Amino acid sequence: MHPLRSLALAAVLLPTAHAGEVSVAVAANFTAPMQKIAAQFEQDTGHKAQLSFGATGKFYAQIANGAPFGVLLAADDTTPEKIGKEGLGDGSTRFTYAIGQLVLWSKQPGYVDADGKVLQKTDWQHIAIANPKLAPYGLAAMQTLNRLGLTAQVQPRIVQGENIGQTYQFAASGNAPLGFVALSQVMEGGKLREGSAWVVPASMHESIRQDAIVLKPGQGNAAAAALMDYLKGDKARAIIKSYGYSF
């Protein structure tokens, strides 16, 4: 074979020659952007990210019990911090990959007004909110209701989702006409996909800082290290931003 052709072939094969795999626990709110990022990550690096989606609180329990995840993309910053302190992950790898945005959403166009005053009405029966003990978006929703002085009024009508993914399903199916969900679940390409929404001002709840950390099983894993770097890059950040997150 011609030497130049050999070099060209080697260059083509190089990205996959040392390709690895990493198991990633991903906060439910980050499902759509992470699916896109993982596909682009594999295309660009050859490494594969095996994704599992769920509530950050549940992932912590699984990680503490020895679940073989290599990387955690949490819905908060406190869980990765705790994981680092407890020796369940490498604290030096922790960084904020996104800052989440809470939104009050309805599948019905025109149902939610721009100021969220629909919350004060009494003509709706249910509102979907994620479990505040497990899901940071659920905690932010309760903090918002407290700030508005509406907790006692709204509490009896809350339908609680185990995580923000299930919470979105309650609202998307119409079982609850309203839901406090992640903006990323109802936005794509910088626009609301359907329905109506009130983007909750960040001042009404604690900042939803979402941190990533390499877990103990992922230490020394080239794919885990590559993914952490990739999440900081321009391609990943463009995808993240298109779903309504900031940094």
Automatic annotation (TrEMBL):
Top-level taxon in the UniProt lineage: Bacteria
Residues spanning the signal sequence: 1-19
Protein name in the entry: Molybdate ABC transporter substrate-binding protein
Coiled-coil boundaries: none
Gene: modA
Key words of the record: Metal-binding, Signal
InterPro entries for the chain: AvModA-like_subst-bd, ModA, ModA/WtpA
Keyword Signal recorded: yes
Protein family membership: Belongs to the bacterial solute-binding protein ModA family.
Organism: Diaphorobacter limosus
